[in-house]
Each structure stands twice: as C-alpha cells, then as structure tokens.
Design a protein that fits this description.
Outer membrane efflux proteins (OEP); two-stranded parallel ribbon; 9 helices; 6 strands; about 15% strand
C-alpha cells in the first residue's frame, strides 16, 4: 500500500506541473518573434533604406567651406620663392560641386542597393525556414516523449488491475506466489519507466522552450501536431534557388557598374569668397569662379578587363553551385517521397499487429480470471505489446519528421 500511495502521489505531482496545452503554431510564432537573427535581418533591411537615401545625397550639390591663412616669411638668402608663394595666402571660399549626366550611374547604385536588400530578404527567408523546421522537429520530439509517458501510464494501469485480480487467485491457490512476485516486480519496473518517460519529456519540452526563447518553468501538454503533406514541389519558390537568381542578377549588375565607372564624368563647380596674398588686400579681393570638370579614364593597367574576368568567374562558380543544388533538391525530394511511402506501409502493418496483440491481451485477462493461462505468458504478451506500441510511436514520429522535411525543403 505504501508503494501504491507513493506512486499515486508522484503522478499527482507530475500532472500538477503541466500547464495548459500549446499548439505547434504557438511555438512557431514565439520562435520567430524572439529570434535575434531575424531581428537583425529586419534592421539590415532598414539600413538598406538608409543606404538608398545616402546614394541620393551623393548626387546632390556638395557644398564645402574652405579657409586658409598662410604666411611665408622670406629674407636675404632664405625663405620660399615669392613667385610661388606670393608671400602668403589668405582665403575663405564657399565651393559648390554638382555631378552632371549621372542618371545611369545613380540608377545603377540604386539597383545595387535593391539587389542587396533582396539578398538580405532571401537570407531572412532561409533562416526562417530553418528555424521553423527546427522548432517543428523539436515539437514532434516532445510530443512523442509525451505520448510515451501516457503509454507507460496505460501499461502501469493494466498491470495494477491484474494485481488486484491475481492477489485473490493466489490466495485461492490458482496461481503461485512467484507469479505475484513477478507481477510486483513488473509494476515496480513500469513505475520507473513512467518516471523516466516523464523526465525525458521534461527535457525535450525544456529544449523546445529554449529554442523558442521562452522562459517557462512548467511543461505544457503538447497538442496533436497536424502536418499537411505537400502535394507538389516548386524548386523555383525555394529560398535557396531565389538566392541563386539574385546572385546572378548581382553578377550582371557588377559588369554594368564596371562599364559605367569607365565612362566620362562631368561635373560643374563654382566658388565665391575672397582670396588675397596679404591681409590688407582682403577687402578688395572678393570674387567668384565657376567651370566644368571633365574626366575620362585612359589607361589603368587593364584593371577593367581584370574586374570583368573576375565577374565572369564568379558567375561560373554560381552556375556550378546552382546545377549541383538542383540535382540534390530533386534527389532529396524523391527520397522523402519514398521514405514517406515505406513508413506509411510500415505503420499500417504495425497497427494491424497491435490490434491482434490487444485481442490477445483481452483473451489472457479473461483466462487469468479463470486460472486457465500461465501468468508469465501474460507478462510476456504485455511486454511484446509494449515493444510494438513503442515501435508504432517511433514510426509515426518518423512519418511526421519526414513530412516536416518535405514542408521546409529548400
């Protein structure tokens, strides 16, 4: 009785620490909300918007104020040549510089920023996909551990029911005392299995909370996960394939920017202020100047050709990776479909076996009450039933894990 009381108390304490059930969607939502990496991507996109404004600012008039007060003393046989220094320089100028005919260069810079933002968005999508798959996988693991915990309790209840029946049969001499001792040992062992399965669930549930950034001290009862089997796969919608496409656009854009940087550049300039060689002339030397700057690269050691070759090499490498990824994606897709088919066939066979074992246990229970069956055979049947049920749980979780991989195939 003392052992029975302690077991009941233990189970009561376990269930008192269970919180209200939470769904997979709840953990996915919290995991995405709390992910610092996803928050970083969001901030990078905001930074990209600022980069666009910064690019606009570089093509607007640039105004600078430049002042100088310089005196070069000269004497007999010493000092700088006054033909060069004029003896000094006192100036305060306001310079204005405005690039001209820079529409294509400006558009090119904006396109570069746009592609960078798109690349960040794809990286964010890849991270989100990985996070969802990881959270789902851990949720399935926690759910499997909880189901194992419930099943261990079911077996314990079954053995305890037989314990009451067997006690009276032993007193009547139908069964031996050793049969009762074997049952008692089985009950003790199953009680340990209940505690072990609870600890395992507690650990997996805690890891799930950890992944999602949740500080939860109590475990929740996981709801039955519902994972739809994807009907078709579109490799073009894969975030990795989208990344390859953006990289291709970035390589093409790099070639364009190389060409634009080697085109003539024209800018207008103007200044106003004073410039004098002696301080006393400052009031009489106010003025202004304006003009146009023109620059054209003539020869730079063939840097343009080298940059173009590097871009072509980068694109060739990208194409190799994309080809390999496409092959791997299709192979993985076929493998998952085959694994799902075989696992579902296995589950069907296990369920049929489990149904037959449940019928056998019912027969054993009826025969034990009449003293017609060996009790050790009943315990063997219970153990076989437990092993088959464990195999079914593992197989069902394997099926859900396969579907999880299919849903987040990238």
């Amino acid at each position: 009785m003392r052992r029975k009381y302690l077991l009941i108390l233990t189970l009561a304490l376990i269930f008192s620490h269970l919180a209200v059930g939470q769904s997979l969607d709840f953990y996915l939502k919290k995991g995405l909300e709390n992910s610092p990496l996803l928050k970083e991507f969001s901030n990078q996109l905001r930074s990209g918007a600022l980069d666009s404004l910064l690019a606009n600012a570089t093509f607007k008039p640039q105004i600078n104020q430049v002042s100088q007060a310089m005196y070069a003393p000269a004497g007999k046989n010493m000092g700088y040549d006054e033909a060069i220094t004029n003896g000094g320089n006192f100036s305060a100028l306001l310079n204005i510089m405005q690039p001209l005919f820079s529409k294509r260069l400006k558009a090119g810079q904006h396109q570069e920023i746009l592609l960078s933002n798109q690349a960040i968005g794809v990286s964010e999508k890849i991270t989100e996909t990985d996070l969802k798959q990881g959270i789902t996988a851990q949720y399935l693991s926690a759910f499997a551990d909880y189901q194992q915990f419930l099943f261990c309790q079911t077996i314990l209840k079954l053995l305890r029911e037989e314990q009451q029946i067997l006690a009276s049969l032993v007193e009547r001499g139908v069964y031996l005392q050793t049969d009762k001792m074997n049952l008692d040992l089985s009950i003790t062992s199953q009680g340990i299995a209940v505690k072990q399965s609870w600890i395992q669930y507690k650990n997996s549930s805690g890891l799930l909370n950890f992944i999602c950034g949740l500080a939860v001290s109590s475990s929740t009862v996981p709801e039955i996960p519902v994972l739809p089997v994807p009907k078709y796969f579109d490799i073009n919608s894969s975030p990795v394939m989208m990344k390859f496409k953006i990289d291709s656009l970035k390589n093409s854009h790099s070639k364009l920017m190389i060409d634009l940087n080697y085109r003539p550049k024209i800018s207008a300039f103007a200044d106003a202020g004073f410039m004098a060689v002696t301080p006393e002339n400052v009031p009489h030397n106010f003025g202004t100047s304006f003009g146009v700057n023109f620059s054209l690269p003539v020869y730079d050691g063939k840097q343009r050709k080298i940059l173009q070759d590097k871009t072509l090499l980068t694109e060739s490498i990208r194409q190799d990776y994309q080809k390999f990824y496409t092959s791997q994606y299709l192979q993985h897709q076929d493998q998952l479909k085959e694994q799902l088919k075989l696992t579902e066939e296995l589950i069907l066979g296990i369920r049929n076996q489990l149904s037959e074992q449940e019928k056998l246990l019912s027969l054993y229970k009826a025969e034990i009450e009449k003293g017609l069956a060996r009790f050790l055979d009943f315990l063997t049947a219970v153990n076989n039933y437990r092993l088959t049920k464990n195999t079914l749980t593992v197989s069902e979780m394997n099926r859900l894990q396969i579907i999880n991989q299919m849903n987040y195939l990238k």
